[in-house]
């Protein structure tokens, strides 16, 4: 059974908050911080992982590891019946860090990270050949001021 926000309790959110601050925090540290047993912390965190609520990953700073071209690409699709097919194709591309269906002027919003501007041009040229895409508009991000996970306190 997939765990949803409504089935997460206060302890689950507290564990998630601890890991957002320090993804390497040990079960012992989580337990001490939340005043629960190590077994409780371990059991809860393992369940959150199994339920797909959280994944433990190493998050890198794109700029510091060599991604110098970061952009937002608005994708326009015709006919609209190809939107899902186009989205599935784009989602498999390694340069894509975010992809969403949108309302409004364009159909898909794509955030892309590439090593260089030339790589970004190649990416744009490549997606422009996908059946159904008739237009793209690219906005370069000159400087990213915030790149973060959602603040769980907003759900309280």
Automatic annotation (TrEMBL):
The keyword Heme does not apply. It holds the Pfam family HTH_24. One of its GO terms (cellular component) is cytosol. InterPro entries: ArsR-like_HTH (IPR011991), AsnC-type_HTH_dom (IPR000485), Dimeric_a/b-barrel (IPR011008), Tscrpt_reg_AsnC-like (IPR019888), Tscrpt_reg_AsnC/Lrp_C (IPR019887), Tscrpt_reg_HTH_AsnC-type_CS (IPR019885), WH-like_DNA-bd_sf (IPR036388), WH_DNA-bd_sf (IPR036390). It comes from Spirosoma endophyticum. GO terms for biological process: regulation of DNA-templated transcription; response to amino acid. GO terms for molecular function: sequence-specific DNA binding. Residues 8-68 form the HTH asnC-type domain. This is Lrp/AsnC family transcriptional regulator, regulator for asnA, asnC and gidA. It comes from the Bacteria. CDD domains: HTH_ARSR. Keywords: DNA-binding, Transcription, Transcription regulation.
